[in-house]
């Protein structure tokens, strides 16, 4: 091919690329270990991930035994961090596994409850920062196999959730306070040598997990911010490729690896590393612009910051309507909402969590149509709540969290779109009134209550008939 033809093809290719990819072409730095792809994944496995809407997070480990207390003292931090508390003798914590015997654990009961709540996927802690493994890893003795319980918790959960039709994702912490080679930073040649052993161990464990649990759809990494790990761009990049080769379609977020300049989540060119933005922990973006068109998840705790079991929650505990609002807000901005549960040391899910799961599930039974496979509707956010749009059917939903005192929802539409009909889900068509050009009232029928109501709206092309009466000011 002549050089001229090559240049011509490049120019033509540039003009047909989607806008997002063209923006990404601004990149100026050549990277060995940056983003592997520009723009969203378009394969069926990722479409499946995108459609979940609601997920469950499970934090379970030996930290559930002290449950935020030690020798009568109250630990105010996140319960799964109790080992790092000066009041907690490390030696004693590292022997807690000898008491791990959750006789009340019933994987099927957890899975049923998650199903009833409406969760479409679950993320399970295989190993948190303390290093304790809920599966019988060959590469350390600090596992459930050496506890009095002995049985494979990850195996039981994987089977039980799969049986309920809930996709399983495995959480894995790179921070490992139990492994002798783990370091937060590498300051001496001895540190570097020790860390090489830790890297081999990490690779072995991850490959082991994917081999043992091939139904796993993705990995949710945590504890990747320490300098020692951030410096492993080449290793982490090739490991990610290796992991992906084991399970086709494997979903891995932006938290796993940094680029060679130590940039995390977004590489040195600002491009997302991994399949989705994984930085929304206990927080939700204000608007869709903040997400730059990327897939993303939000992982949320029920109290302010407790993931593992803490027997004595302090501060605000979210209600089911608050959680539902967070979920729909995420969905409306194309995100998945993942709600955390921290079962106790005996394997029971606490009463507060069970009640919330039931309340969310009750709502989902009638309204999940506005959640599953629903994303951004292309309409501006309005005061009463959130628009969502089903990616397959194109149906547009309104979930009303702030019911106006006049009982009417005010909907503004962009130029060129007209409101055709609005109805309750499986219910009556509602009366609408055109207030002015591109602006309508929808008269709600059901009385005000504390249940967020969902409506389905049909639009048609064309402008509304109302006269434009712009006041001169
Ligand atoms: O697994 C959950 C957390 O334990 C983990 N990510 C979620 C999914 C996480 N690890 N670190 N962080 C979140 C952020 C760091 C928090 C800390 Fe603290 C601030 C560690 C020490 C001070 C909060 C307060 C936790 C312990 C005390």
From TrEMBL:
Q: Which UniProt keywords apply?
A: Glycosidase, Hydrolase, Signal
SUPFAM superfamilies the UniProt entry points to: (Trans)glycosidases
Molecular functions (GO terms) = alpha-L-fucosidase activity
Record GO biological process: fucose metabolic process; glycoside catabolic process
Q: Per the record, what is one GO cellular component?
A: lysosome
Q: What is its EC number?
A: 3.2.1.51
Kindly indicate where the leader peptide sits in this chain: 1-21
Superkingdom of origin? Bacteria
Is Oxidoreductase included in the keywords of this UniProt record?
A: no
What PANTHER family does UniProt report for this protein, alphabetically? ALPHA-L-FUCOSIDASE, ALPHA-L-FUCOSIDASE-RELATED
Q: Which family does it belong to?
A: Belongs to the glycosyl hydrolase 29 family.
Its recorded name reads alpha-L-fucosidase
Organism expressing this protein natively:
Siphonobacter aquaeclarae
Q: Source taxonomy lineage?
A: Bacteria, Pseudomonadati, Bacteroidota, Cytophagia, Cytophagales
